[in-house]
C-alpha cells in the first residue's frame, strides 16, 4: 500500500516568480485584481508562502514599482550607451515610449504614487531617472540643449511621450500611425531643446 505524500513546491526564486505573476495580473486586471492569496494559488504554494516575501498587498505593489523602475532604468542605460548625443536622446525617447505602451498599468503604479514613498522606491526612481537627467545636463555642457533645470526639461519631454503612449495605448491613435507621430513628437521636442541663438 502506498501513502500519497503531499505535493511540495520548491521554487528557485519564489519572490521573483510572485513578482512576475503579479505583474501579469496587474496587466490583465489592474491593482484591484491583485491578491496575495490568488498569487499563492496561481504559483502552487501555500497561502502563507507569499507573506514571507511581502507582508501585505501594499508591500507587493511597492516591490512591483521598484522592479518597474529598475527595468526602465536598465533600458535607459542601454539606449544611452552609444551614438551621438541626438542618437542617444532619440533612442531613450523610443525606449520610454515602448515601455509606456507595453506596460501602462505598471507605469501608472510607478508614477501615479499608488505606493508608499519608501526609501527603496525613491532610490529606484532616482537611479532610473539619473540617465536621462545626466544626458540633458551633458547636452547643456556641450551647448546642444537650452539652459535650465535638467530635471524639469527631462520630465517635460517624458510627459509629452507619455501623452503619445496614452493615445496609442487607448486606441485613439492607430498603431500604424505611432511611428510617424513618435518622429513628429521627437522632432518638436528636439527643436524645443536646442539653444536659442
Summarize the structure.
The chain contains 8 helices and no strands. The protein has 197 residues and is mainly α. 28% of the residues are buried.
Descriptive terms for the model:
mainly alpha, 197 residues, 8 helices, disordered N terminus, Tetracycline Repressor, domain 2
Structural overview:
The chain is an all-alpha fold. The protein has a single domain (56-193), classed as Orthogonal Bundle (Tetracycline Repressor, domain 2), CATH 1.10.357. It contains 8 helices and no strands. The protein has helices at residues 14-29, 36-43, 57-79, 85-102, 104-111, 119-141, 150-170, 175-193. It is elongated. Mean pLDDT is 87; it is low at 1-9.
- Report low-confidence residues grouped into runs of 5 or more: 1-9
CATH topology: Tetracycline Repressor, domain 2
Overall mean pLDDT score? 87
Over all CA atoms, what is the radius of gyration?
Answer: 21 Å
Number of helix segments? 8
Structural class given helices, strands, pairing? mainly alpha
Annotated CATH homologous superfamily = Tetracycline Repressor, domain 2
**Count of all domains:** 1
Order of helices and strands: HHHHHHHH
Question: What is the CATH architecture descriptor?
Answer: Orthogonal Bundle
Question: What is the CATH C level class, in words?
Answer: Mainly Alpha
Overall spatial form: elongated
In what range is the share of β-strand residues?
A: under 5%
Residues in helices, as a percent range: 55-70%
Amino acid at each position: 500500500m502506498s501513502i500519497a505524500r503531499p505535493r511540495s513546491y520548491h521554487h528557485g526564486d519564489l519572490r521573483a516568480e510572485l513578482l512576475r505573476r503579479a505583474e501579469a495580473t496587474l496587466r490583465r486586471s489592474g491593482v484591484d485584481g491583485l491578491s496575495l492569496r490568488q498569487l499563492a494559488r496561481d504559483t502552487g504554494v501555500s497561502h502563507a508562502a507569499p507573506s514571507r516575501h511581502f507582508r501585505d498587498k501594499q508591500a507587493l505593489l511597492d516591490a512591483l514599482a521598484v522592479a518597474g523602475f529598475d527595468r526602465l532604468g536598465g533600458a535607459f542605460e542601454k539606449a544611452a550607451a552609444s551614438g551621438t548625443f541626438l542618437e542617444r536622446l532619440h533612442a531613450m525617447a523610443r525606449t520610454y515610449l515602448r515601455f509606456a505602451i507595453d506596460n501602462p498599468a505598471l507605469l501608472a503604479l510607478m508614477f501615479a504614487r499608488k505606493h508608499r514613498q519608501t526609501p527603496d522606491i525613491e532610490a529606484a526612481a532616482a537611479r532610473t531617472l539619473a540617465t536621462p537627467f545626466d544626458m540633458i545636463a551633458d547636452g547643456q555642457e556641450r551647448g546642444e540643449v537650452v539652459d535650465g533645470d535638467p530635471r524639469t526639461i527631462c520630465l517635460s519631454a517624458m510627459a509629452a511621450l507619455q501623452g503619445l503612449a496614452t493615445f496609442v495605448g487607448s486606441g485613439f491613435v492607430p498603431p500604424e500611425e505611432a511611428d510617424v507621430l513618435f518622429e513628429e513628437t521627437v522632432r518638436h521636442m528636439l527643436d524645443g531643446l536646442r539653444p536659442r541663438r
